[in-house]
Amino acid sequence: MDNEAILRKYKRRQRLIDILPVVALAALFAILVATVQSKGYRLDMYLKIVFNEGVVLAVVATGAVFIYTLGSFDISLGASTLFSATLGVMTYNATQSLPLMILVIFGVAVGCSLLSSVLASVFHIPVFVTTVAMMSVLSAIAAQIITTNGGAVGGISIPSALVKPLDNMGFKIAVLAVFWLICFFVFDFTKIGRKQKFLGGNPVCAQLTGIQVNKYAIIAFVMAGIGVGLGAFLTLVYTPSVTATTAGSIGMNIVVAIVFGGMPISGGPRSRIYSALVGGFSYILLNNILKLLIDSNIGYGVSQIVSAVFFLAVVYVTGLNYRSQMLPR
Amino acid sequence: MKTSKKIIGTLAIPVIVAAILLILCAASGKSMISSRTSFNYFVLYAAIVMITTMALSINLGSGRFDFSLGAMAVLASVLSAKLSYALLSGGAGSAVLMLCLNIVFGALLGLASGALYVTLRIPPIITSLGVTLIYEGITFTITGGKYVMNEVRNASMTAFAGNWYWPLLIIAVVLALIVYLFDHTRFGYDYKALQSGQKVAVNTGIREVPNAIWCYVICGALMGIVGFLNVARSSNINGGSLNFGSIGIMFTAFLPMFIGGYIGRFSNDKLGYLMAALCMSMLNSTFAAFSNEISASAQSIINAVLLVVFLIYLNNEGLLKKILSPKKA
Questions:
Q1: Which of A195, A325, B1, B223 has the most beta carbons within 10 angstroms of its beta carbon?
Q2: How far is B133 from chain A (nearest CA, A)?
Q3: Using the beta-carbon criterion (under 8 Å), do B124 and A119 form an inter-chain contact?
Q4: 3-state DSSP call for residue A114?
Q5: How far is CA B225 from the centre of its chain?
């Protein structure tokens, strides 16, 4: 086979791999609809559940794409969401002011993100370890506040009437769409996105061309912080109370969602902003389908196993074109 | 390096930590280790931390991040608890049988994890996410999401947990074996070569795949021991961890891993992990002495702050020395 034929084959396979996550999302959506209807359940109710779970994950993961593009890894985003929501609720309960609550949520989310990035870039601490420490600190402080002010089980809350007008698909779709479009623009049409992809792909080369690592790392963490703030606010809109377990699984689900959406965990030029959106909703759809199909307590375990196997299979197929002779690290 | 400097460098951190904590306890009229029971737990916890740290560092040192360590420990414990109870009904020798089974199941789970990694050839961090979900799912399915208690509460286990010399024996055997395996065998030399230069090592003919699989098997066996020690410490196994709930076990090993690595400069990194584990166990015993004053949340915060402070020192050592050294005229 000549070089041109090999290149054509490679490109054909790459196109197929690129659309695979979107095809998987469409297929999972179709399966969910078919499963709900075959069981005679209310489809609108299930779609609402999937959307409400998916929108928070998609928003936080979309912001996190900027960090993952740099080849970094942030495990503290779930704890940061919990911490922002906790301080937001405390602020509202102290001042009865919704604008102030929103301001605090975003301020805290961006502040936490910035602190991680400053610790990592100024003190040269590995980003992952910094975020592990941040995760411990933020979840511990949030748990302490929640336990002291509302009890470990009931948690702390804001009046449901306050956020009820915002608890509708239209508002949430608008929030998701606006944030995603901003991220899409920054990521694909500005030098910020291009330089971040360059840094993720080849950090040494990128630095030698004069790109400032710290500057783009801080921008990435700020974008992730905005995503966390939105995620914390949408969480409160859906459930106006916060417990120590709120958003507990988001931190790791982000990684799964991004990879599920076809983005490599190593970041770089193959990073895609749509990965978080597609992967986030795919993962939530898959989990809900499995919950419907395996309807028992033990079913939670089985559905997690199936979900993990599906996840590994998708990652394996989407990475088919990038196999190296040596083991990947 | 002079022998005296090596000895001082190896013992300095544990001695300083012990001195600070003993002074703190004495100033408050408390005792770090007040009874034989608390000494038993001190040694048991040191064993848990040292072995977890070793397991974490084996793969992490080679750029392979493994989230599944905690899930491996829990699943190995559940399987061995069920099997040992079926064989001996909690009678004499149950603890020894369970320990042996834990090692075997841990090694097998590690083998499965390593085999998946070398077969799929996707980044180890992603493989480990999938494996974590699968192992947690299997544990949940076996236990029905409940605690395993009857199978592990027997006279044999109580006798093990009530005698400090058993965990001490485990520490000695594991330390000797790991030092032998990684510092005095061909496997260890290959491991170090692959660690410091993967491409060069592979090009010189070192077989990377078997080496990686053996690393996973060893990690699995070590986590099997950790699982057993955790059961001895808490007299139950939490079978209800889903959605990455088991990864917390791994985070306890970050601080000792960095402290151990630092101490290792003066002697051997494995000996460093033991010294670091002793420091962590002293801290844990002090927390227990101050349990009325320091909440669990505060303990998490203190641990995280210590991690960050130590890393700031570690990553800016050169700069600090430059600042603190007297300027030449």
A1: B223
A2: 6
A3: no
A4: helix
A5: 10
Burial class (CB in 10 A: 0-12, 13-18, 19+), A154: exposed
- φ and ψ at B148, to 5 degrees? -95, 115
Specify the pLDDT at position A16.
78
pLDDT at residue number B80:
96
A158, pLDDT greater than 70: yes
Token pair of A292 as six digits: 């419907």
* Amino acid present at B257: M
Q: What is the rounded CA–CA span in Å between residue B288 and residue A142?
A: 22
**Buried-exposed string A247-284: b where 16+ CB fall within 10 A, e elsewhere:** bbebbbbbbbbbbbbbbbbbbbebbbbbbbbbbbbbbb
pTM (whole model) above 0.80: yes
Put simply, whether A107 touches B (Cβ < 8 Å) is no
Q: Is the pLDDT of residue B148 over 90?
A: yes
- Cβ contacts of A301 on chain B, cutoff 8 Å: 136-142, 145, 242
Residue A68 to chain B, least CA–CA distance (Å): 13
Look at the block and give the residue holding tokens 């360059």: A198
* Cross-chain CB nearest to A132 (options B138, B254, B315): B254
Distance from CA of B257 to the nearest CA of A (A): 11
E strands, chain A, where?
156-157, 241-242
Could you give the ipTM of this predicted complex? 0.87
**A122 lies within 8 A of chain B by CB:** no
Distance CA(B322)–CA(B95), nearest Å, equals 53
**B130:A312 CB<8 A:** yes
Average confidence (pLDDT) over B115-139: 91
Distance CA A52, CA A50 (A): 6
Taking the CA of residue A161 and the nearest CA in chain B, the distance in Å comes to: 32
Contact B212 A327 (CB under 8 A): yes
Q: CB pairs below 8 Å between A and B: how many?
A: 154
The residue of chain A nearest to residue B64, with distances taken between CA atoms, is: A329
Mean pLDDT of A114-142: 85
How confident is the model at residue A1, as a pLDDT?
61
pLDDT for residue A85: 95
**Going by C-beta distance under 8 Å and a sequence separation of 6 or more, which residues neighbour residue B302?**
B287, B294
pLDDT in tens, A279-329: 999 999 988 898 888 776 667 888 889 888 988 887 888 776 666 778 887
User: Cβ contacts of residue A48 below 8 Å, gap of 6+?
Assistant: A169
First-residue to last-residue Cα distance in chain B: 29
- Within 10 angstroms of residue A325's Cβ, the number of other Cβ atoms is 9
Q: Do B120 and A253 touch (CB under 8 A)?
A: no
